[in-house]
Design brief:
The chain is mainly β. The chain has no helices and eight strands. The strands form two sheets. A six-stranded antiparallel sheet has the order 1-2-3-4-5-8, with no helix packed on it. It has a two-stranded antiparallel sheet with strand order 6-7. A hairpin with an 8-residue loop joins β1 (2-7) and β2.
Length: 110
C-alpha cells in the first residue's frame, strides 16, 4: 500500500506533506492460527504530524491471529518503531528515537 497526503493543517498558506508505504505478509499455520508481519515507512517532510521536519520513521510489527473458540479471536501484536529524529514521548526520558509496544486485542463475532 502507498499513502500520500498533502494538506493545509493549520489553515495557513503552508502545505504539509507526508507519505507512507506498507508491506504485509501472512502465514497460515492451522485453520485457527496464523502469524503475520508488516513493515511501514513514513516520511514527514514538514514535521507537522510527527513533530520533527524531514523525519523518516520505520515501523515493524509482528502479530498473531488465534481463533480461541467459535466467534472469539485473540490478536497479540509486537511493534517496534524507529525514527531519524527524537519523535516518541517517553515517561522518564523525554523524546526518544525508538519505541516498542505490545498489545493483545480481542475480537468477538456474533
Amino acid at each position: 500500500q502507498f499513502h500520500y497526503m498533502r494538506d493545509k493543517p493549520d489553515r495557513t498558506k503552508q502545505v504539509s506533506e507526508w507519505f507512507s508505504t506498507v508491506i504485509y505478509a501472512q502465514y497460515i499455520i492451522k485453520n485457527n492460527l496464523s502469524i503475520g508481519t508488516f513493515i511501514e515507512r513514513f516520511w514527514d517532510k514538514d514535521g507537522y504530524y510527527f513533530g520533527s521536519p524531514d523525519n523518516h520513521i520505520w515501523c515493524f510489527t509482528l502479530g498473531c491471529k488465534y481463533k480461541v473458540a467459535q466467534g472469539l479471536t485473540l490478536l497479540p501484536e509486537l511493534r517496534m518503531d524507529t525514527a531519524d529524529n527524537p519523535t516518541f514521548e517517553h515517561v522518564s526520558n523525554g523524546r526518544v528515537k525508538t519505541e516498542q509496544s505490545f498489545i493483545i486485542a480481542g475480537l468477538y463475532e456474533f
